[in-house]
Design a protein that fits this description.
CATH topology of the largest domain: Quinone Oxidoreductase, Chain A, domain 1
Oligomer: single chain
Helix content: 25-40%
Structural class: alpha/beta
CATH architecture of the largest domain: Alpha-Beta Complex
CATH class of the largest domain: Alpha Beta
Length: 305
C-alpha cells in the first residue's frame, strides 16, 4: 500500500509499505477521504529532520478487514474515528475509536476527529437554551462550532470573521448575525454568554475576550502554537471563565465523537458546505498549500482515494 511521507520542507512523497494487519480489537480501514488539518501545516512546512515524517489524523473510509475478536462490525461499513498517521491508503483503527457514518452523509463530509474536537470544545462551554453565543473565526472548525452551538439549543449564535464569504456561509448555516472582525459594533462587546474562539491567532483571541460578557465563558478552541498569547486583565474584573477547548483524554473525545455523529445523523450539523476542495490522493502538498494561498471560497481541503 502507499503512504505519504514528508521528507523536507513543503515536500512529501508516496512510498510503498507492507499492508498492515489489524490486531485484536482492531479493523483495517481503507481511507477513502483524509482531511488536511491546519494544525499540521507547520510540521509539513518546516520538517528538516533526519528521517521522514508521517502525518494525518482525519480519516473516513470503509472497513476492509477485521482483526481477531471483533464483533458488531462488518466489512464494507463506512466508518470514521481516530487514527494517526492517516495519510495512507489503509489505516488500522481500534473499534473503540470507530463510529458508523450515517447513510445520508457522504464519506467526504464525515470526518470524525475534527467533529469530536468541536463538540468537546463547545459542549464544555455551557452552551444551551438561554445562551447567546459568538463564534470568532469562521474557518472549518468555527463554522462547525456555530452549528454545534445551535444544535445544543443556543438562543442566538453570531459569527465573526474578516472574510465576507465565510460570514455569508455562516448566515446560511443559521447564524443570527455576522460581524467583520475588524469592525465589530461597540454594542456587541462584552455582551455574549459564551464566546468560542477558533482563529488560532493573537488578535482573534483578544477579540473573543472583548466580546465575552460578565460572568460569561471564553472557550479557547483555536490552535495556538506560533507564539505567546495575552489576555486582558479586564476579563478578571468581568468574572469571565476561560475554558481550554482541547481535551487530551481519549474517552472524552470518543464521547464527543459519538455525540457529534448523532448530530450529523439528525441533520443538525453538516460538513458538506465546508469541504470546499477535494484533491487526488497524490496531491497532499497541493492540499497543504491551499492553507497558505487561501483562494476565494476556501474553507477545507481533503484528499481522496
Amino acid at each position: 500500500m502507499r503512504v505519504h511521507e514528508t521528507v523536507g520542507p513543503r515536500t512529501s512523497r508516496l512510498v510503498d509499505v507492507e499492508r498492515p494487519v489489524p490486531g485484536r480489537g482492531e479493523v483495517l480501514v481503507e481511507g477513502l477521504v483524509l482531511g488536511v488539518c491546519a494544525s499540521e501545516r507547520g510540521a509539513w512546512g518546516s520538517h528538516d529532520g533526519p528521517g521522514p515524517l508521517r502525518l494525518g489524523h482525519e480519516v473516513a473510509g470503509e472497513v476492509v478487514a477485521l482483526g481477531p475478536d471483533v464483533h458488531g462490525w462488518t466489512v464494507g461499513e463506512r466508518v470514521t474515528g481516530f487514527a494517526h498517521p492517516a495519510f495512507a491508503e489503509l489505516v488500522v483503527m481500534g473499534t473503540d475509536d470507530l463510529v458508523q457514518v450515517p447513510s445520508h452523509v457522504p464519506t467526504w463530509a464525515a470526518l470524525g476527529e475534527p467533529l469530536a474536537c468541536i463538540v468537546e470544545a463547545v459542549g464544555r462551554s455551557g452552551v444551551g437554551p438561554g445562551t447567546r453565543v459568538a463564534v470568532v473565526g469562521l474557518g472549518f472548525m468555527g463554522l462547525g462550532a456555530l452549528q454545534v452551538a445551535l444544535a445544543l439549543g443556543a438562543d442566538e449564535v453570531v459569527g465573526v470573521d474578516v472574510d465576507p464569504a465565510k460570514r455569508a456561509l455562516a448566515g446560511r448555516l443559521g447564524a443570527a448575525a455576522t460581524h467583520d472582525a475588524r469592525h465589530v459594533p461597540d454594542g456587541a462587546r462584552a455582551t455574549f454568554d459564551v464566546v468560542v474562539e477558533f482563529t488560532g491567532t493573537a488578535p482573534g483571541l483578544a477579540l473573543a475576550g472583548d466580546l465575552t460578557g460578565r460572568h460569561g465563558t471564553l472557550c479557547v478552541g483555536g490552535y495556538h502554537h506560533d507564539g505567546p498569547r495575552e489576555l486582558d486583565v479586564e476579563l478578571w474584573y468581568r468574572g469571565v471563565t476561560i475554558v481550554n477547548g482541547f481535551s487530551p483524554d481519549r474517552e472524552r473525545q470518543r464521547t464527543a465523537l459519538r455525540r457529534g455523529m448523532r448530530m450529523m445523523a439528525d441533520r443538525q450539523v453538516t460538513f458538506e458546505p465546508l469541504v470546499t476542495h477535494r484533491l487526488a490522493f497524490e496531491d497532499l502538498d497541493a492540499a497543504f498549500r491551499l492553507f497558505e494561498e487561501r483562494p476565494e471560497g476556501f474553507v477545507k481541503a481533503v484528499i481522496e482515494l
